[in-house]
Amino acid sequence: MPRAMFEYTKTVLEKVSFDVQLFRKELEKAVNRLLPHELKELKIWLVQYIQGKPELSTCLICIK
User: Fold this and answer.
1) Which end of the chain is more exposed for a tag (fewer CB within 10 A), N or C?
2) Are 55 and 46 in contact (CB under 8 A)?
3) Of 55, 59, 63, 61, which is closest to residue 18 (Cα–Cα)?
4) DSSP 3-state helix, strand, coil percentages of the chain (rounded to 5)?
5) Would you say 9 and 33 are in contact if contact means Cβ atoms under 8 Å apart?
6) pLDDT bracket for residue 62 (50, 70, 90)
7) 8 Å CB contact between 50 and 63
8) Collapsing DSSP states into helix, strand and coil, what is residue 19?
9) Rounded to 5 degrees, what are φ and ψ at 52?
């Protein structure tokens, strides 16, 4: 089940990436819900995902 939550989180973040505030809000929810090893994976995914979206780079501080 936890793996399903990780995949769901990535899907939600991709869908809300058009709005920085909404993206940050969903990212904060994910930080509270995911397991520590999933957070490490999410950070790696997030760094790769936002490379083409500089407006989302400020959201990286939520996951540190």
Assistant:
1) N
2) no
3) 55
4) 85, 0, 15
5) yes
6) confident
7) no
8) coil
9) -95, 5
Question: Which residue bears the tokens 């989302």?
Answer: 56
Rounded CA-CA distance 60/57 in Å is 6
Task: Provide the CB-side half-sphere exposure for 30 (13 A, CA).
Answer: 31
Residue 2 has pLDDT above 70, yes or no: no
Averaged pLDDT, 22-50? 93
Two tokens at 16? 């809300």
User: 3-class SS at 7?
Assistant: helix
Count of structural domains, the chain: 1
pLDDT greater than 90 at residue 23:
yes
Question: In which domain, by residue range, is 21 found?
Answer: 2-63
